[in-house]
Amino acid sequence: MIDKVLVANRGEIAVRVMQAATELGIETVAVYSDADETAKHVRRADEAAHVGSSVAGKSYLDQDSLLEAAAETGADAIHPGYGFLAESESFARRVEDSEFVWVGPPADAMADFGEKTRARAIMDEAGVPIVPGTDEPVDDPERIKTFADDHGYPVAIKADGGGGGRGLKVVNGPEEVDEQFRNAKREGEAYFDNDAVYVERFLENPRHIEVQVVGDTHGNVRHLYERDCSVQRRQQKLIEETPSPSLDEATREELCEAARAGVAEAGYSSAGTVEFLYEDGEFYFLEVNARIQVEHTITEAVTGIDVVKEQFRVAAGEELSFEQSEVEPRGAAMEFRINAEDPFEEFNPTPGTLETYRPPTGTGIRVDDGVNEGDRISPFYDSLVGKFVVTARDRTELLERSKRALEEAEIEGISTTIPFHLAVLEDEVFVESDHTTKYLDQQFDGLDDA
């Protein structure tokens, strides 16, 4: 087993990784920028190393500084968390080629799934349904027009290295193709250092459903069932739940097995997420996130399996600690991302000091955060304060318990997304589970009455 891990991240995910490591008897090393010298993840670690200035590009994204910190502190492994360098193929490869153990998916898997056309080809080969589209990048807008003539508008032009809505342009007619082709290529180059784009049919009102998978280096791959992440604002997730209320049992089993088979085809190891779009009773592969996800918490809540611990075991060369037949989800769970943002002002960030911070407690409540009362939410990084995870026997009880948890929380000094979450919980479309990924952007007006 690993003896000491450097967690190349900050905030709540760094704390989460350290908690799992401690339970496995692994010592922890935090890294910090100038802005984070006294942050919770630094206080939580066994030791800490300074890696640069407050700007992420000169600290948490500085590969040389992170590797030097690992060497200087005597760490024998590096866990990237999510965000920052978690899906950096170059960083993963540098760690793999060093004396350190990489606690995450291998660089080759990141290469396979980092380029969307290659990922589509892998999934297609494994028999996983994919959205009709091109199997290789397109370099001429006329090819997009030809594709749209065959499949109909709207179509989506997507950055081959993209994700999270970056480099995605929806085209509603031939007159828009040339401009959106240029825009997608420009964003792909800016965000992913890759201006290649491909095109696929655009699903107008899908659900966003993802499957948690985990594999080891002995050829074992398991799925831990699905999460519904359809509550999104501008393609950024805000509320996730499991199980998805939109799936029947037969479809659930088919979708989850497709995800497992798809990544098994690629020899995947460590934790990852296979994302799908689901519309009119059909599901289609979207992408693979080769890392731990923000919302892994709700999967842990209903399965009882610690996904981060499995990452450590896999990195140490061990087999997964459970069989597929042992994965038996119980109840329902929902995660609320509590961001330092003002939902009444277009969700603008509100950095500041947590003058009061009393998260909810009691039956069915889990809180993953990277702050304590008196800490400051920095303007330099993501605005996530923490995640409130609520579990219950069924969705009806889950909705009521979630309201109680959100109302019970006391946070002063900053604005948060709690009023937004409470408004969603009162909205009939969400309560009846009639929402799609377009719900917040096109249907939801609950904040007007909040």
The structural class is alpha+beta
Estimate the mean pLDDT confidence. Answer: 95
What percent of the residues sit in helical stretches (DSSP H or I)? Answer: 25-40%
- Oligomer status: single chain
**Number of helical runs?**
15
Strand order of the largest sheet: 13-12-9-10-11-14-21-19
**Rg on CA atoms, Å:** 21 Å
The stretches of 5 or more residues where confidence is low (pLDDT under 50) are: none
Characterize the largest beta sheet: strand count, sense, and whether it forms a barrel. 8 strands, antiparallel
What is the tally of beta strands? 22
Alpha-carbon distance between the two ends: 51 Å
Fraction in beta strands: 25-35%
**Principal-axes shape call:** globular
